[in-house]
Amino acid sequence: MSKPYILLVPGSFVPAGEYDNIVNPVKARGYDMKTLQLPTIGLAPKQGRDTPATMYDDAAFIAKEVEALADEGREVVIVAHSYGGMPATQSTKGLTVEDRKKEGKTGGVARLAYMTILLAGEGRSASEVHDPPAPEDPPSTIKTDEKGFFHFTNPERTAARTFSDLPKEEGLRLQERFALHSAVSFTNPLTHAGYRDVPVSYLHCEEDVVIPSKIQKREIELIEKESGRKVDVTNVKAGHCPNASVPEKVIDWIIDTARKS
Q1: Which of 185, 205, 229, 234 could lock onto 116 through a cystine, CB 3.0 to 4.6 A?
Q2: pLDDT tens, per residue, the chain with 261 residues
Q3: What is the 3-state secondary structure (H, E, C) of the chain?
Q4: CA–CA distance, 35 with 6 (Å, rounded to integer)
Q5: Strand pairing partners for 9?
Q6: Which domains does the chain have, with CATH numbers?
């Protein structure tokens, strides 16, 4: 049996190349893998559109990539990070290995692998995953511009949260490479709970302050309750971007996940 093809769906704001430090080592171990550049990430003119893309545009883009691979007979593991959990989950409708088998086809999505993600149940959006802010919480560091894109208003504070387990200077350097991100994508409700249809792995980042451990555990419980299957959970002491702070552990997790698929 051939190895599955691994598609990585990035988090919000993050250009695909920021994951090269984990993609290239996985490829060096004999796996086909690439990171998708989501339509919601970057300036709209570069995408040939006048308005920011939606979460559904991202999901359709992922689905197109999956279908092309499946039509070649490839099974696919979708690895999703942060915001990427929503469109990755949405994208699998009709594209799982079992779905395609019923149509006499080979290939398809064999597993979803989540790396500290935003995940809501059907009918809810990414913006609803976090608990409402407490009165004493500091104001948000993200604002929406007149074109509908998110901007960071305090890069230093954002970097301190996003890369909480890296030195301050390193976190800020990585933060400065982030792009803009479509604001509307966080308001689009999930309409297909793909985690019900395939096995799920989850990299639980215990020290994440962007998507705290309690939210990650809540997501795992949701998946297990709605799918009726246990989630294959790997715990790691890392912040929100383990691909930056503990890349070796992420590489090992991805390969282990692929072997189980």
Answers
A1: 205
A2: 689 999 999 999 999 999 999 999 999 999 999 999 999 998 655 555 568 899 999 999 999 999 999 999 999 999 999 999 999 999 999 999 999 999 999 999 999 999 999 999 999 999 999 866 555 555 678 889 888 999 888 989 999 999 999 999 999 999 999 999 999 999 999 999 999 999 999 999 999 999 999 999 999 999 999 999 999 999 999 999 999 999 999 999 999 999 998
A3: CCCCEEEEECCCCCCHHHHHHHHHHHHHCCCCEEECCCCCECCHHHHCCCCCCCHHHHHHHHHHHHHHHHCCCCEEEEEEEECCHHHHHHCCCCCEHHHHHHCCCCCEEEEEEEEEECCCCCCCCHHHCCCCCCCCCCCCCEEECCCCEEEECCHHHHHHHHCCCCCHHHHHHHHCCCCCEECHHHHCCCCCCHHHCCCEEEEEECCCCCCCHHHHHHHHHHHHHHHCCCCEEEEECCCCCHHHHCHHHHHHHHHHHHHCC
A4: 9
A5: 80
A6: 5-259 (3.40.50.1820)
Tokens for 72?
């070649």
How many residues are listed for the chain in this entry? 261
CA distance 200 to 230: 8
Backbone angles phi, psi at 21, to 5 degrees: -70, -15
> Known catalytic residues?
208, 240
Is pTM, for the whole model, over 0.70?
yes
